[in-house]
Amino acid sequence: MTQDEIKALKPDALAPAETTEKAETLGQTKAAMPFAKCFVSAMLAGAFIAFGAMYFCVFLGDPTMPFAVQRLVGGICFCLGLVLVLCCGAELFTGNTLLICAKAAGKICWADTLKNWTVVWVGNLIGALAAVFLVFMAGVAGMNGGAVGEAMVSVAAGKVSPDWVTLFFKGIMCNILVCLAVWIGFSARTVADKVLGILLPISAFVAAGFEHCVANMFFLPMGCLLNALGVGAVDAVTFGGIFYNLSAATLGNIVGGVLVGLAYWFIYRRSKAAGK
């Protein structure tokens, strides 16, 4: 049995240095993915995150629950999205900010990095909008006497009310936690490891109300659509509000992901790369 085969059989997680090396390799692979495959995979990720967002809203459809219960259990419900992304395989913009590891190692260039981020961001948006259509047509918003729809509009309205700078820093905090969850996923060897490792970081960012641009690609259009049909407060969500939020959340998510990726690359891989 070879050393690689022995390593594959080990049940323990990858060490931090091994995880960082894996992040570099994965970044190189993602950057080289053909456009069509990358785009369709990104659409899947957008839909997967939207399913988690839908699950979150269904749970919030019971307005009698205490705040802490809503935050905790709602956050766990939302984890569905990243579980599907990491376990089933899909290209998620927030997680792909970790391509910065491959860029720092000189394995890809800025053009490769920015191209991947752009294609994946747009693919995530199309996938999330497709999920909006499916969820709307399935009548999910009408559950619990329409309370789920009210929750969807309320969540969307809450995402356009803070000032832009606050949304930007909420985006940074969000993707620090998301990328740490993805990092745990990189280190995991089993599906159970991935799922358990995702739960705390993702539920934490949801409970704290941080901003995830891909989740907001579902929350905001769904809230806008329902609001236009008379659900919730008048003009709670507009197309301008969608752009306002996504611009801040996207930039914040990039900063958060880059901070995580560069920190671990600096600790575990910089000296090795410099010695080449």
Automatic annotation (TrEMBL):
Pfam families from the UniProt entry: Form_Nir_trans (PF01226)
Entry annotated with the keyword Membrane: yes
Cellular compartment(s): Membrane
Parts of the chain that traverse the membrane: 38-61, 73-99, 119-144, 164-186, 198-222, 242-267
Gene Ontology molecular function: any one: formate transmembrane transporter activity
Keywords of the record: Membrane, Transmembrane, Transmembrane helix
Membrane topology, record value: Multi-pass membrane protein
CC terms in the record's Gene Ontology section: plasma membrane
Family that this chain belongs to: Belongs to the FNT transporter (TC 1.A.16) family.
Protein name: Formate transporter FocA
Provenance organism: Enteroscipio rubneri
Phylogenetic placement of the source organism: Bacteria, Bacillati, Actinomycetota, Coriobacteriia, Eggerthellales
